[in-house]
Amino acid sequence: MKKATRSKTKTSCQVVVVGSLNLDYITRVEHLPRPGETIVADKMARFRGGKGANQAIAAARQGCEVTLVGAVGFDEGGDVYRRVLEDEGIHTDYLRTAPTETGSAFITVDHQGENVIVIAPGANADLRRSDIARSAPAIESCAVLLGQFEVPTDTLIEAARIANRNKTLVVINPSPYLWTFPWEEIRTDVIVVNETEAEALLGFRPEPSAASEVRKRLHELHAESLVVTRGGDETLAFTREGESFSIPVLSVLPVDTVGAGDAFSGCLAARLAQGETLRTALRAANCAGALTTLGAGAQDPIPNRAQVDRHLQFLDL
């Protein structure tokens, strides 16, 4: 995939994120509960999360000017969240206060760092096409539009259409996966998935040897490239031109995997907005994702650009 290109009217290094904001309630347990099993947590903590906000913070910490389009609730949590984002330097002009509660996520993490998540969308489900229309000037002038599946589909489609008309790069992280998403209605430059999502999207397990099959599927999806994260294994990338390559990951001992994928996507979008190639941006994204697993919660451990750059040298060791 070519570098992100911008006309003279586009603001340098700007990312617009259309996505969710949640209050995360995290419990830590010896093992994840089986169906019907009740277990006692070691402790409970509350953090701010939501894929949209997580990815916006990740992009901002890479040095990008970031705008977040979303909705918070008419509650104290929503007011505090807005201030936290502004402290991160994120523009909240298009963050609407909805007449409901701020979204919530209930996350259980075991001692190996694996997790299960239940989400109550709250205000995220109230994000409307009118909110996207209001944010059109930001989308039209940005370098990269980044979206996920924790907001209504029609809002993400509308945002992508605005980006498509302005030849803005569109990066979509289809999580949580939605079988009915109408990929054919938009053009996507980069789809970012984990292995489970990749199999659902493609209909088969992506391997380097399957480049021709992936290429055919990318044509059907109106997508230019596919990125598949695989935890501690190398990240795979496939392009519509038939190219495939892998990027090494940073070897770490995870404490908490919550938010690692969002740090990856946000860093990737930021580096593409800054003009890096897909291959180079993925190296930084792999570092950002890995470093995020070293702390608790989705947002606090997300690294800044200097931290990511310091660890790039260790990818090939």
Q: Calculate the mean pLDDT score and round it.
A: 93
Unreliable residue stretches: 5-12
| Biggest beta sheet attributes | 9 strands, mixed
Shape: globular
- Beta-strand residue percentage: 25-35%
Count of discrete structural domains: 1
Task: Please give the order of strands in the largest beta sheet.
Answer: 5-4-1-8-9-10-11-12-13
User: How many DSSP helices?
Assistant: 10
Look at the helices and sheets and give the structural class. alpha/beta
The CATH architecture: 3-Layer(aba) Sandwich
Q: Could you name the CATH topology?
A: UDP-N-acetylmuramoyl-L-alanine:D-glutamate ligase
Overall helicity? 25-40%
Tally of strands: 13
- What integer value in Å does the Rg equal? 18 Å
Q: How far do the termini sit from each other?
A: 26 Å
CATH class: Alpha Beta
Description:
This protein has a single domain (14-19, 51-72, 84-92, 127-314), classed as UDP-N-acetylmuramoyl-L-alanine:D-glutamate ligase. 32% of the residues lie in helices and 26% in strands. It has helices at residues 51-60, 76-87, 129-134, 136-141, 153-165, 195-202, 211-221, 260-273, 278-292, 305-311, and strands at residues 14-18, 22-28, 43-49, 65-73, 95-98, 103-109, 115-120, 144-148, 169-173, 188-194, 223-230, 233-239, 244-247. A hairpin with a 2-residue loop joins strand 11 and strand 12. The two termini are 26 Å apart.
Outline the secondary-structure elements.
Blueprint lengths: L13 E5 L3 E7 L14 E7 L1 H10 L4 E9 L2 H12 L7 E4 L4 E7 L5 E6 L8 H6 L1 H6 L2 E5 L4 H13 L3 E5 L14 E7 H8 L8 H11 L1 E8 L2 E7 L4 E4 L12 H14 L4 H15 L12 H7 L6
Parallel strand pairs: 1-4, 1-8, 2-6, 4-5, 8-9, 9-10, 10-11
Antiparallel strand pairs: 2-3, 6-7, 11-12, 12-13
